[in-house]
Sequence to fold (589 residues):
Amino acid sequence: MALDGITTFAIVSELKAALLGGRIDKIHQPLADEIRMSVRGNGAPKKLLLSANSGHPRIHLTESSRENPMTAPLFCMVLRKYIAGGKIVDILQPDFERIVILKIESANEMGDITQKSLILEIMGKHSNLILTDENGKILDSIKRVTHEKSSVREVLPGKDYAFPPSQGKKNPLLAERADFLFSLHLQEGRKLSEFIYQTYTGISPLMAQEACVRASLDASDACQQTALEEGERLFDAFSALMKEAQEGRFLPAVYTQKENGRIMEFSVLEMQLFRGMAQKNYASVSGLLEGYYQERDNALHIRQKAHDIRRLVLSNIERCAKKKDIQQKTLRDTQGMQTWKKKGELITANIYAVSQGMTTFRTVDFYDENMAEIEIALDPTKTPAENAQKYFAKYNKAKRTLAALEIQQKQNDEELEYLESVLNALDNAVDDADLSEIRTELAESGFIRRQPQKKGAARPKKAKPLHFVSSDGYDIFVGKSNLQNDELTLRTAESTDIWMHAKNIPGSHVIIRTNGTGEAPDTTLEEAANLAAYFSKAKNSSMVPIDYTQRKNVKKPSGAKPGMVIYLTNRTIYITPDEGRAERLKAES
Fold:
């Protein structure tokens, strides 16, 4: 669920209570579309996050932090110039739109107090964060919109700020019964839920469905077929929702499926629509948004930062695949080599029966148990000996090609397997440290140029393996990259710990701490096998084979690429990956 008008109304109410009268202390821009501000006053300092991310735009208080760039981006510098030290005097949500305006009083160059507006437009891919002066002139925006991008509304410094074009929707806080019922029966071909969210500002399809559920109506019913009494019930339910919001009766919660723990939706109001689902309540709307979006926002951030690495890896995988096709063709071309050798030997054995100028020669094939006759093509311009040498030369060339091909195939298959494992590591990366480790690994393997570390730059944070705790209380560790797999298996794990890996499938190394016993209960083995399957390329498959053995049976061949190991003694578990089961173990770690 994206931030709708009701959630925006709730967060604005919360921010007013927390931030009004506070002064903006520090301003940072860790990402291209995200601003973080420290606000002091009204008790302990608070951190405010404003994101114009096209996938997860939002505003809320935050406890988390991000690494900031060495040099502040231009928009961050503009904010520091105009509103650093400024006082937040009001926070508005105009006409129940998904727009939040922070009114900030700050001194200008002359020392006079003026009022600036920091405007967050929560509009999906068109989301933006805009700073305007006291006259409504745009000072700058986190995303500049030129005439080429939008002929309807430019967002550039010096332009007058205007709200996004209205879609002719009505403010739901001002909804009246007569107008609601009159409009309802004019909706030709529309469903009840569509009527609500397409008529009133800031109402999401989810909240429209909730109103229908509370009115005991089917959201997919046609508006024109709705009886007057049903329409009145729908208006009463809709009005009750809006009254809950106005009175601040918020119940921030995330709703999940009971069977697998998968997150379905979130809401700031109590939802009858999700009755029967598990719900996790939050003490504040900010806590809800932080909990719901942090993982998704981080995943999007990691995908964006990993884009170039992924493209490089996919390009090399494609190169290896093409090389494999060429090798297969070459292999097919050498399949007749034994026949060429045989023909050379048969010509040599019958050299006195062959004359120069002959185009073919028939003889008994004494290599055939049935002693069948064979016809051999000859070059009439060559002597019999030269014809025999031509076949021997063809055989020897194919023999040399085949010997080299076997080496090349082995190298190419190993490289392809390694690149597939790097691709899987990119899927498992959860933070910048993981990506940094993958870049280091690719540099060490010669796929990218090693970047020299800037003088005075902080050393990159060391990535850590994922940590889970089994139902039986056993620690389980999962590597997220090949370097991490090597570290976990070869240097961290004890010799009696249990090692797991998806059989012949790129994936993570999984270690079960056995505390010297070398054994683990069946439940723990199954849970660890589920993790090995889930953090492998086969995460969306069923009945994935997982090999396991004691760590002492796992060896790394000399010269092998990162993450590549061999093992001889093992058992195998077949398991279907279950994301919910993995998440539950992680939550208990």
Remarks:
- Residues 384-428 form the longest helix (45 residues).
- The CA atoms of residues 6 and 406 lie 65 Å apart.
- The mean pLDDT is 90.
- The first strand starts at residue 23 and ends at 31.
